[in-house]
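Team,

Forwarding the record for the chain on the shared tracking sheet. I've put the sequence and predicted structure together so nobody has to dig through attachments.
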Amino acid sequence: MLCVPIVSLFIFGRHIYLTNKHDLSTWKGGGMGMFADTDGLQNRYAKVFVVTPDGRRNPLTQFSPEQTDLVERALLYPVRENFLRAARSLAQENWVPTHQRTPVAIFDIKGDPVGTAAESFYLMVPYGRQSGAEERNWGLQIQFWKMAYNPVTKRAHIVLAETFTFRAEELWPKAAPIKS
């Protein structure tokens, strides 16, 4: 008879822990207040970059539906393993830069564009799958951003919650040697 309340308390405690320590969205069971909380996919997003060996970053665009699903799953439970799964899927594409560099836009507090910065980058778009013969010496960086609320000013703002960097060795692990 005490089994149900004990199991319920365990589940409740686990959800509170995951929400506070691992940013599990309350909409995925990371807390009991999912209907009173605004923390869902509409308030979380990821920025994904190809990182070249010399350290330059270029943003990735145009994900497949499967890759979008993996990124969204990682956003709901943002731990390194989930983002690594998404990064490995993204790394299978042959990412090529657009023909011209895109300047970084500067926006005012209302979100209106006010100019461009001196910095620019190439947008990376998929162009087929990677072949096994190509050298893959680039990595991926995924930034996890989420909306936070300031209880004093009662205003929302976007914060960089965490940055995950994946080296080439993590994206394309070497096959284990075959034992004879």
